UniProtKB/TrEMBL annotation:
GO terms assigned for molecular function: isomerase activity
Pfam family name, one: AP_endonuc_2
Keywords for this protein: Isomerase
InterPro entries listed in its UniProt record: Xyl_isomerase-like_sf (IPR036237), Xyl_isomerase-like_TIM-brl (IPR013022)
Gene3D superfamilies for the chain: Divalent-metal-dependent TIM barrel enzymes (3.20.20.150)
Top-level taxon in the UniProt lineage: Bacteria
Domain Xylose isomerase-like TIM barrel: 60-246
Descriptive protein name: Xylose isomerase
Length: 372
């Protein structure tokens, strides 16, 4: 959706398609009709933004075949859909039965990551609407934290430098954003500033994922201020929220329903206890409150007695809209299929309804901040 701020500037709001399993071009087209069009219709809008996720084989095929890129743009336009941002974090198989640490592979020390991201940039340049100011691509925050050393950092830096040079040669302005995440080499705002200062480029910046920010127990106003003071561009924002629990000891049975086998659910306590996945936290006696990296639907309450990091969401959006120039916002709830059964959609229509409800919720949050 296209929104307008108080000055009349366009703010793009999309939903991320990494919630859908699609590993080939036909699969990408299929999800447009199964989900994106029904979401648009439920919202009652003429134009819906998609933060497309293209698995590496699809991105390669599109990069190699101009006619395929042109076809994808036609297919989007015919359905009242547009794309100004891509999610380039997962490389492929993001909806496989078990993902866990594989989502960080290949990392930024591997030439495949560079090739994939440059492919995405080429594809996005074709998909961008003619009147779009720029495009954005979110990517992983260098790598999972282990193994990591100076040699690997030098390798990653060399590839990011090459990425920046490739983006500078592009036909349309496109920026790539590192997305800090718990457990990674870059998981905090301070680490993002340090990493991006080492590869300074107008084509690189940060993607602020509000669920990740919450899990790090960072104050969103302070985080945005740090990025602004350091001159780090907020290229993209993922409008998301984490799970939160005040007293884990009394909520273990409910928490266990969220400890599923597909994704990592890094868990952090306000006192600094760190767990790479929720089952590890549940096996501990760490006191609360905890925040859990489980992207919870924006509009729905978590199972009682859990709650969500909605305060970080609201305060983060307010800070970002007033203190940054970011105009790309993406609702990224990829966990619908692994929610506890009582909260999980049972069919395609239910998933489309849930995504539409999230976007409507997000639209209301923007409207309350003067962006409509």
């Amino acid at each position: 959706m296209r929104l307008r701020d108080a000055d009349g500037a366009t703010v793009h709001l999309a939903y991320c398609t990494n919630v859908h399993a699609a590993e080939d071009f036909d699969g990408v087209l299929s999800q447009l009709d199964r989900f994106a069009v029904p979401v648009r219709e439920r919202l009652g809008v003429d134009l819906l933004g998609l933060g497309l996720w293209l698995a590496a084989p699809v991105a390669r095929a599109l990069a190699e075949q101009p006619q395929l890129r042109a076809r994808l743009r036609r297919e989007l336009t015919a359905r009242g859909l547009e794309t100004v941002t891509l999610n380039g974090f997962p490389y492929q198989a993001f909806q496989a039965p078990v993902v866990k640490h594989d989502v960080y592979l290949p990392d930024w020390t591997d030439p495949r990551r560079l090739r994939y991201t440059l492919d995405l940039a080429l594809v996005l340049a074709e998909l961008l609407p003619d009147d779009a100011a720029r495009g954005s691509i979110s990517t992983l925050p260098l790598a999972w934290r282990e193994p990591w050393d100076r040699r690997r950092f030098r390798a990653a830096k060399a590839q990011l430098d090459e990425l920046a040079a490739g983006l500078a040669r592009g036909e349309r302005p496109i920026r790539v954003a590192l997305e800090p995440e718990p457990g990674c080499v870059v998981e905090s705002t301070d680490q993002a500033v340090a990493a991006l200062s080492a590869v300074a480029s107008e084509h690189l910046g940060v993607c602020v994922d509000l669920a990740h920010l919450a899990c790090g127990w960072e104050d969103p106003v302070d985080a945005v201020a740090k990025l602004k003071a350091a001159g780090v561009a907020v290229v993209k924002v993922q409008v998301s929220q984490a799970l939160e629990v005040e007293d884990p000891a009394s909520a273990r049975q409910v928490l266990a329903a969220y400890a599923e086998p597909r994704f990592l659910h890094q868990t952090r306590s306000s006192a600094g206890e760190r767990f790479d996945d929720l089952p590890q936290a549940l096996a501990s006696d760490a006191p609360g409150p905890w925040r859990i990296h489980f992207h919870a639907p924006l509009h729905a309450a978590a199972l009682d007695p859990l709650r969500t990091s909605s305060t970080v969401l609201r305060e983060g959006l307010a800070a970002l809209l007033t203190s940054s120039d970011c105009d790309h916002f993406e609702v990224e709830t990829y966990t619908w299929d692994v929610l506890p059964p009582s909260a999980r959609p049972t069919d395609d229509a239910g998933l489309a309804e849930g995504i539409a409800a999230e976007l409507a919720f997000a639209r209301d949050q923007f409207a309350a901040l003067g962006v409509s």
